[in-house]
Amino acid sequence: MNVETTPRRSDATKAAILEAARRRFAEDGYRKATIRAIAADADIDPSMVMRYYGNKDGLFDAALDIDLELPDLAAAVPDSLGALIAGRFLELWEQPPTSEILLTLMRSALSDDIVVERMQRIFAQQIMPAVLRFGDPSDAPHRAGLIATQILGLALCRYVLKLPPVVALTHEQIVADIGPTVQRYLTLGQR
What is the value of pTM for the model shown? Predict the structure, then answer.
């Protein structure tokens, strides 16, 4: 019986640590967040954080691990790709826990090189492969970079700076306005 409850308790402890870490990293940033503060937020001993995640870097990676779960663009109607991408990013930015993770990454990347590296990995591992499916592979980094500027600019204005006209936009308006721009970047150079 003890064998059955141990994994559950372990999973619950890990989940509490990750939730506390996400909040703490969001509030304090990577540099100021401490293992002790995260452990206190999770109501556990700091040694448990170290046991499960090794160090602050390991905890940060686990807490801010995100799968963008981009739609299969190869199966989509070609003229709808930009709208699909814009819609997917809105979903990610507005659904916990991804919304919290992305907000933490966005805020922290402005002041911390470790977070910048994390954002670059997400870009390279998840966005670039989607863009590589279209057009000339040699200009895929250029096109993916332009898409990132559009999506991250929208996120900065809507979720970090909370500019009233951008916050007031409905999902439909954003997809209708941003989708064609993302589409143009995705298929840049194609006819």
Answer: 0.78
